[in-house]
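Example for tutorial group B:
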């Protein structure tokens, strides 16, 4: 039987401080900062690889499609978040709609998304610092980033959220300055030249590129749904979370299209298509290497990376905590710090997985690509899996629990949620075809996790039956 969303978490009956509830300290402004901060590193790097696949015009179409998917997703996801305001996010929604095993799959996919994204961002932070300070290796700097921001997250949610808000605002201001500075050098002629996958005319090859570029467009918006993980730490979540979601997705869309279009129109966009720092290089072509603006962008670009890295640590820790609290992961992962009220064990364990990936990166290649490139793709697979389950839950809960209190109802139901569901399924299928090696590794990880969960459930049920038999 699917679980009722009104059921209380299955906390331990003992009064240990480890299982204390999370503390409600976040308002709308903090939640907006988390929503944008989770994602904003995607406006700085990663997306430009979509140009190499689809060209500027082709990738523009890809981004429009993905932006529409995310808009539909967020408008629909908000109904779930406000109806079932639990730290488990998609795990809690799927549990209410479909029951334990589908809930585990959705929750574990969300963990894959949120645990596997930070190592790539940490290495980007490390690579950036290595350029400025050659004596510091990328791995050393990435390790330092994990240590600092795990500690900051453990220190308290209000401290962590305030820091997230500050660095997010700084990153937004910097992106606006970038667009203003390069505007004098912008030309639509530059942007549209060879814009259809390297051709001036639309061809079937451009269609292939448009669909192959989907992961890079998703990078513009990946993890915004992580705000749902803070539902138990938000003041009046039925009111504050919808406001934060709508403001957040609007902010990210404006920044994504603004940055992509302005960067593509300042010169030969092909020179930027395979770079991890397209914005400084685009600015160089307009103001020259001696301009103080370039140095500002290079230094402050760290804010975008830090905002996403820090915010995603907050997101994965709440997902792990919620599943452990419900008994789907080891109980120690649900421990809450007695003083700071934060899920410290989940923060440390998720970070440990990221650190292993960072140090394995130089030794492991899959499908001809380094490990971190593959885990970024697996992070997107995890997100799309979770999106499909979440949208399916919305439809099922409308049918099975029509009287559930819904402070926010998805607009355009069933068309808009249906569009989000179909778009997520098609995106997943397209990525599986385009990235067979990463897809195989994703299936292995998911299969292992689900298999261990099913084995644990079987052992628990068997022990319960043996106990009942002995009592009778």
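The residue assignment follows.
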């Amino acid at each position: 039987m699917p679980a009722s969303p009104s059921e209380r978490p299955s906390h331990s009956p003992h009064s240990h401080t480890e299982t204390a509830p999370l503390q409600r300290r976040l308002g709308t402004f903090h939640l907006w900062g988390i929503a944008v901060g989770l994602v904003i590193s995607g406006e700085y790097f990663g997306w430009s690889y979509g140009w190499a696949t689809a060209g500027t015009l082709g990738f523009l179409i890809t981004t429009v499609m993905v932006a529409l998917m995310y808009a539909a997703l967020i408008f629909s996801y908000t109904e779930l978040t406000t109806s079932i305001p639990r730290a488990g996010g998609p795990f809690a929604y799927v549990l209410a709609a479909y029951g334990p095993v589908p809930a585990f799959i959705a929750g574990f996919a969300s963990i894959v998304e949120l645990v596997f994204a930070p190592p790539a961002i940490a290495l980007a932070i490390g690579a950036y610092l290595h350029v400025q300070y050659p004596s510091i290796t990328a791995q050393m700097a990435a390790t330092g980033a994990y240590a600092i921001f795990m500690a900051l997250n453990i220190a308290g949610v209000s401290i962590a959220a305030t820091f997230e808000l500050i660095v997010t605002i700084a990153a937004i201001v910097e992106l606006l300055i970038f667009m203003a500075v390069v505007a004098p050098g912008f030309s639509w002629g530059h942007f549209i030249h060879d814009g259809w996958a390297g051709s001036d005319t639309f061809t079937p090859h451009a269609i292939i590129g448009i669909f192959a570029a989907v992961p890079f467009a998703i990078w513009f918006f990946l993890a915004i749904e992580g705000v749902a993980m803070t539902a138990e730490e938000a003041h009046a979540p039925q009111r504050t979370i919808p406001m934060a979601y709508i403001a957040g997705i609007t902010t990210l869309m404006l920044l994504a299209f603004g940055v992509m279009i302005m960067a593509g129109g300042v010169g030969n966009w092909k020179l930027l298509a395979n770079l991890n720092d397209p914005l400084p290089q685009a600015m160089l072509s307009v103001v020259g290497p001696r301009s103080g603006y370039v140095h500002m962008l290079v230094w402050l670009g760290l804010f975008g990376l830090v905002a996403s890295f820090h915010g995603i640590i907050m997101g994965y820790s709440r997902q792990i905590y919620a599943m452990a609290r419900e008994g789907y992961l080891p109980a120690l992962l649900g421990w809450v710090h007695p003083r700071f009220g934060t899920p410290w064990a989940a923060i440390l364990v998720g970070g440990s997985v990221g650190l292993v990936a960072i140090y394995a990166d130089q030794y492991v290649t899959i499908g001809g690509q380094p490990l971190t490139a593959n885990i970024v793709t697996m992070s997107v697979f995890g997100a799309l899996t979770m999106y499909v389950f979440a949208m399916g839950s919305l439809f099922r809960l409308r049918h099975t629990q029509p009287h559930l209190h819904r402070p926010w109802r998805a607009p355009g139901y069933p068309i808009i949620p249906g569009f989000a569901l179909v778009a997520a399924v098609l995106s997943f299928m397209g990525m599986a075809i385009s990235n067979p090696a990463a897809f195989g590794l994703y299936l292995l990880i998911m299969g292992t996790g689900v298999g261990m969960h099913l084995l644990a459930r079987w052992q628990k049920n068997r022990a319960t039956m043996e106990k009942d038999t002995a009592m009778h």
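Residues 436-471 form the longest helix (36 residues). Compare this with the pattern of hydrophobic and polar residues in the output above.
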